[in-house]
Amino acid sequence: MRVGVLTGGGDCPGLNAVIRAVVRKGVKAHGFEFVGYRDGWRGPLEGVTMELGIEQCRGILPRGGTILGSSRTNPFKLDNGVERIKENLANDGVDALVAIGGEDTLGVATKLSELGVDVVGVPKTIDNDLSGTDFTFGFDTAVNIATEAIDRLHTTAESHHRVLVVEVMGRHAGWIALHSGIAGGANIVLIPEQPFDIEEVCRLIESRFESRYAPILVVSEGAMPREGGDMTLVSGDVDDFGHVRLGGIGDRLASEIEKRTGKEARAVVLGHIQRGGTPTAFDRWLATRFGLQAIDAVAEGDFGTMMALRGTSIVRVPLAEGTAELKLVSEAEYAEAQVFFG
Fold first, then answer.
1. What is the DSSP letter of 227?
2. 0.90 exceeded by the pTM?
3. Nearest CA among 31, 43, 56 for reference residue 4
4. Which residues are catalytic?
5. DSSP summary character for residue 264
């Protein structure tokens, strides 16, 4: 069997670990051949490939990013996109695809599966917002990077008696902000699922200063004020999946806090730092297990499935189930953390 592999959407640590596991087990246990598709769905759409075998996978386990490249290409936005993909797969002699990605990449995989393409999905996103799995790889690394940044910011905030606002990624889901905020001892965490009251934020900040400590505020890029506001945009332009570029809520909050409290406030935007660099041991472990299970699913002809972590077990769920809705922070989970705020 000849198997294609692609990585789509935003890059994250652990992608190379999945590729390595898929290829090594595919070659050694199943005798498969592999084709690497470059830059997400653009690869099979335009027939852009690279050689992919055990040799190409040597030394990539600790590397961030993806040796295959990535993009946010959506074949369903292009004329004859599906037909072009099917034609290129046939021309390349590819019998099945392993698609590694998040909501958008696996959303495409779901539709292609329904249209007769043999595809298996592996869930990847630093946002941890895919409903079919307890955790996605990349999330743990992003949380660790954000937590280390918060740890470092405590000392400078206290030295200068200023408010530090840490903006982390999270368009619709606040998992990175919540986990890193709790782990890093932040005083306030603002997430997209729970619109915030700026007056309450300022009250908590003033309360923190009364204890003679400087406050740290962690905010997801998609967080919104409760009244009279919306998401803060870098640009109104949208990508192939209809997403605008978010960013700037940290600066917006810092400015408002200074204005209302008279305390000096600075914003720190972690941005793509959260995506880059070497994956944590947990993400290497999870990505490897996903890859091993994915290639077994291909060998067994169990197509239209997505690998998922449930408890400590890797299971297979229908792609349609895994991408049906976003996994968001519940009101109860957020309320549980609020004992640490202020």
1. S
2. yes
3. 43
4. 127
5. -
